[in-house]
Amino acid sequence: MNTTTRYVILAVFLIIGLHSILSFTHEEYGRATSISNIKAQLPWSAGSTLEEIPDKYYIAPEHNVTQPRRANATILMLARNSDADSAVKSVRELEDKFNRKYKYPWVFLNEEPFSEEFKKRISNVASGEVHFGLVPHDHWFQPDWIDEEKATAARKKMEDDHIIYGGSLSYRNMCRFNSGFFYRNPILQNYRWYWRVEPDVHFHCEIDYDPFLYMEENDKVYGFTITMYEYLATIPTLWDTVQKFIKENPQYLAPENAVNYLSDDGGKSFNLCHFWSNFEIADMNFWRGEAYSKFFDYLDATGGFYYERWGDAPVHSIAVSLFARKNQIHFFDDIGYEHNPYTHCPRGAGKWEKGKCSCNPDRSFDYDGYSCMKQWDRIQ
């Protein structure tokens, strides 16, 4: 084989490899090409920019604690009756790893009334109070002013292009609800903080401190475990819309914000990085505030949740990165978390051992080629 032939073969393999990373079908969503042994190539060293949780937030051994101090917080799950099996598993794991020590209340929301079976099974594994709420019709369903012919055409095109949930109206309803309505639910008016949990997620480490109190006492507004790229095809006009809002409302931009996590060119373009919102520990007063309220209403008025497929993850991420200071956003490295197919496993020195974690830190999504952790670390 001559030299020219070898170069041609190499070029073909490189093109195929690049295509496999950039071209995701419906079935491939979430299965980004894993890059093993990538740690040494990254611009940060493990644990170099991680914020430590002070010892005072850790509780004493359980038999010495009668009533741990708690924040005004709840653990929140959006679920359907058909999710009972997977919802119980998520509740059981978070109870075992965290909430049996603190007994925070749970809130479950559904666009239909919960069945007695669902309520009985959940109440059997949850500690403390459990509340089951109904999502108001106007908070869930597509509003009447949406051009249904235009929305139907958009869904059909995305479905033809094999974009995940591209043809789903219910998924769009959920994204819009999680973006602008969940914190308005009557039950949640009683709380300031929430921890979002989804059915069929896993927690791999003991959590012996209270994340809510840590955030409250350290002026945090948003916490995450996984960050990744969004599909441009689902949000083609979102960043343009954001830029128009900022141009009209520059007063809402926070000093020392995290725009350089979202953008590699100072805000001219969106690099598609966002926090994976199936895990969130956050301050609902931020969503209820003037900046985010006007921001959501502005986005909603364009119809982008239905004419495209705007997700709550990029919407939340963009808002908190622009309207909060970057030091108000916290990476919960010590919470081992899995939402198939991705897992975050603690990478900070001693955290895996301290949490008695069952996950493999060498397989943590932090080091995957589809992760945005390097952009997050860059701004710290």
TrEMBL record:
Any GO molecular function: alpha-1,2-mannosyltransferase activity
Coiled-coil segments, which residues?
none
State the signal peptide span.
Answer: 1-23
Which GO terms of type biological process are on file?
A: cell wall mannoprotein biosynthetic process; protein N-linked glycosylation
Would you name any one GO CC term?
A: membrane
**Mind listing the UniProt keywords for this protein, alphabetically?**
Signal, Transferase
The UniProt family comment states: Belongs to the glycosyltransferase 15 family.
Q: What is this protein called?
A: Glycosyltransferase family 15 protein
Q: Which organism is it from?
A: Cerrena zonata
